Amino acid sequence: MADEEVRQLLKDIKITKFKTRDEQEVIGYYEVLELVFDSFSEIKLSESYVKQLHRLMLKHSTKDKRHRGHYKNLPNKVAATYPTGEQKTIFATTAPALVEGKMFALIEWTNRQWNENTIHPLIVPAIFVYEFLSIHPFQDGNGRLSRLLTTLFLLQQGYEFMQYISFENHIEKNKKAYYDALMAAQRKRTTGKDTIEKWLVFFLESLKTLTEKLGKKYDVFKQKGGYLNERQKILKAFIIEQRAVKFADLSAAFPDISPNTLKKDVQYLKAEQVITAVGQGKGTVYVVKQQV
């Protein structure tokens, strides 16, 4: 779906009937993402919870009704479709009969790493995603679920910027590099000597690219004065009009705003570099920064 189509669809989250498979998948993904954002600190990684997330992600998808929330019972090799229409098999995934054992081992390993804290918290989800995609435990939706789990893991490890970036969008725009990295890792998987350096580099560089883009957006945001609520906008306008004010001037001009709230607003305006303070103590004067 195009960006505008997604925006239009998400305007009304109460929609219960969707016209296309794309719409069904977008809503399901969005709802699980919201759940992850709201509850990541309470979510414990387990097979049952991974299945639950899969079920929720596909709950609107009519074609996936039979298998959502359940491990696959049919083989599902991974194939990449390039812009030319050419398809390439990336790798043969784990046989259905072996999935449960492989998933148990992967989740046990991941939880152990979080507890022992001996591997960098950016490396653990990268390895998890590689193994998860190699197993491909569900009949469909494995890629989307791996990105949701990546977001979950990084939020749990304190990387709160994950709320403002999209791995899903990045993968969509860099499919060739994504598939190439996975294929490079998979070449020796059947021998047990698979090497994942290229995949790790892709994963970490993707994070670097996304955080750099986020940083540039934040720089623009700060130049515009950051996010100001209506009360803070009024304070800013007053300071511009008066050219320079003391805290006492603000208290006198806005008697309906409590001193504590006013102090917090002034601190926020300073932190966002909207205003700057000149002087100290009661003699401190506040001016809009662009005037300095």
Please give a structural write-up:
The chain has helices at residues 3-10, 21-39, 47-57, 96-116, 123-135, 142-156, 167-173, 175-186, 197-223, 230-242, 247-253, 259-271, and strands at residues 78-81, 87-91, 275-278, 285-288. It is mainly alpha-helical. It has 12 helices and 4 strands; from the N terminus they run αααββαααααααααββ. 57% of the residues lie in helices and 6% in strands. The strands form 2 sheets. It has a two-stranded antiparallel sheet. It folds into 2 domains: 3-221, Fido-like domain (Fic-like fold), CATH 1.10.3290.10; 230-291, Arc Repressor Mutant, subunit A (Orthogonal Bundle), CATH 1.10.10.10. The longest helix is centred in the last third of the chain and has 27 residues, at 197-223. The model is unreliable at 9-20 (pLDDT under 50).
Q: What can be said about the biggest beta sheet?
A: 2 strands, antiparallel
**Main sheet strand line-up:** 1-2
Terminal CA distance: 47 Å
Question: pLDDT under 50 segments (min length 5)?
Answer: 9-20
Integer tally of domains: 2
State the CATH class of the largest domain.
Mainly Alpha
Task: Tell me the radius of gyration.
Answer: 25 Å
Instruction: Quote the beta fraction.
Output: 5-15%
Topology:
Elements: H1 3-10, H2 21-39, H3 47-57, E1 78-81, E2 87-91, H4 96-116, H5 123-135, H6 142-156, H7 167-173, H8 175-186, H9 197-223, H10 230-242, H11 247-253, H12 259-271, E3 275-278, E4 285-288
Helix pairs in contact: 2-6, 4-5, 5-6, 5-9, 8-9
